[in-house]
Amino acid sequence: MTKVSITVNGQAHAADLDPRTLLVEFLRENLRLTGTHVGCDTSQCGACTVHLDGRAVKSCTVLAAQADGKTVTTIEGLAAGETLHPMQAAFREHHGLQCGFCTPGMVMTAVALVQQHEGALSEHDIREGLDGNMCRCTGYQNIVRAIAAGAAGMKA
Amino acid sequence: MYAFDYQRPASVKDAVALSGDETVFLAGGQTLIPTLKQRLRQASVMIDLGAIPELRGITVTADTVTIGAMTCHADVAMSPDVRAAIPGLASLAGQIGDLQVRNCGTLGGSIANNDPAADYPAALVALNAVVHTNTRTLPAEDFFTGMFETALAPGELVVKVVFPKPRRSAFAKFRNPASRYAIAGVFVAETGDGIRVAVIGAGPGVFRIPAMEEVLTKDFSVAALTGIAVDADGLNEDMHATAAYRAHLIGVLAARAVTSLT
Ligand SMILES: Cc1cc2nc3c(=O)[nH]c(=O)nc-3n(C[C@H](O)[C@H](O)[C@H](O)COP(=O)(O)OP(=O)(O)OC[C@H]3O[C@@H](n4cnc5c(N)ncnc54)[C@H](O)[C@@H]3O)c2cc1C
Ligand code: FES
Ligand code: FES
Which residues line ligand 2 (CB under 6 A)? Predict the structure, then answer.
């Protein structure tokens, strides 16, 4: 077993875990934060994307032990109370989802993309930024539109 | 995953002291964790290199760029120092996988793994970089020994890579859109030791193309490359591309890299 202490959405959590525990398992099973989804478990789809010390990572490909002492933000941690994060609001406004399975990962990647990118995001930058996120429903058009609007919203 | 114990040492010395026959180093985990999940590998002890500050970071001198083994691809891609000193290297790092993979995956993990389709080996060989381990230094061409094979001894740790600054360099890659790995990639560099052209993705490991280097030394132009046929013999064949297709692609990518520099 290995001891971890991880700050998730602003709250400190300590646990004694099997070292094999993936970050996504810790989030979903220990903390019951089931907004973070597992689509593939093979590092391809990005549904499990969360922020680790502010950077987008695939939480199915990070051990919970690697996050010891670090800060994690999940989709549950984006909104301020009842007020949606500008990226969440933009996904709603622009209908950036159909079934919604990929959406938590899309939104977390989009927020990190805006934060990690210097200068304005072009449509090309957005599409490239989504290389690690797959959607089986939408065809991406409205996701890309939503992210452009969400990026503007975040700067506003 | 099979069960393992987990250790997170704070220095290279401690990491090496912990290592043994059945231990495995964990860097960014972007190759190792999927492999462990598939039970293609197992470890008695996982030695996480993530808490060793001396393995991380980028330093630039008048002649070199030194990158710590645990520096992630995103940090190399976004580094203003690397972009100014070796734009081809920054551009290569920015084309690896996807945003999330680049935020975790590391230089040390990539070269220690030596996937035939990994991008970094092309930069190391074309730029004539030197790999520093905890025990010795090795020129890149002696470090990469074959498919998924390197000169690393069991328990030997990559500490950093020193890249001599080239006069100019560029990387051109043709990606498999699903996996993001290269079907082929070509790194062209004008270095202190002349023009060097290194290829990844197309063969069992990284290799140079002396015929291209020779003609580009005389005349650094796309026109010089016409008529240089790459031999398809021994190149990779899979569901994505035949050996002949890859051979042709190498010529196309070399021309793209040269075009971007002229
Ligand atoms: C979806 C996806 C797409 C990808 N696309 C690309 C791509 O386009 N191009 C590309 O080049 N790569 C790609 N990769 C691989 C990625 O770059 C990996 O990060 C890299 O190959 C391994 O680095 P890592 O830090 O994750 O190492 P790990 O997975 O942690 O380790 C890999 C191996 O190296 C060993 N190791 C790690 N660090 C050291 C060290 N310092 N000394 C000695 N041994 C060490 C480990 O023990 C292990 O055997 C992709 C990966 C994924 C998941
Ligand atoms: S569940 Fe993590 S990438 Fe698909
Ligand atoms: S909305 Fe269904 S997978 Fe994207």
Answer: A 38-41, 43-48, 58, 60
pLDDT at A43: 96
A148 alpha-carbon distance from chain centroid = 17
Question: Counting ligands in written order, which one lies closest to the CA of residue A45?
Answer: 2
- Which part of chain B is CATH 3.30.465.10? 56-261
CA distance B234 to B160: 32
- For B30-47, what is the mean pLDDT? 95
> Do the Cβ atoms of B5 and A41 come within 8 Å?
no
CA dihedral B151, B198, B55, B97 (to 10 degrees): -110
Provide the shortest C-alpha distance from residue B192 to chain A (in Å).
33
What is the CATH number assigned to the segment(s) B56-261?
3.30.465.10
- What residues does B170 pair with on adjacent strands? B188
**CB < 8 Å to B6, chain A:** 2, 19, 63, 65
Confidence band for B180, pLDDT divided at 50, 70 and 90: confident
Q: What is the mean pLDDT of residues B253-262?
A: 97
Task: Please work out whether the CB of residue B119 comes within 6 Å of at least one atom of ligand 1.
Answer: yes
Residue A7: helix, strand or coil by DSSP?
strand
pLDDT band of residue B25 (cuts 50, 70, 90) is: very high
Contact between chains at A116 and B98 (C-beta distance less than 8 A): no
CATH 3.30.43.10 placement within chain B? 1-53
Cα–Cα distance, B44 to B21 (Å, whole number): 9
Q: Across the interface, do B103 and A57 touch by the CB < 8 Å criterion?
A: yes
pTM of whole model > 0.90?
yes
Residues paired with B133 in a beta bridge: B158
Looking at domain B1-53, which CATH architecture does it have? 2-Layer Sandwich (3.30)
pLDDT at A119 over 90: no
Whether A102 is in the pocket of ligand 3, judged by its Cβ within 6 Å, is yes
Q: How far is the CA of B112 from the centre of ligand 1 (A)?
A: 8
Domains recognised in chain A with CATH numbers = 2-77 (3.10.20.30), 86-155 (1.10.150.120)
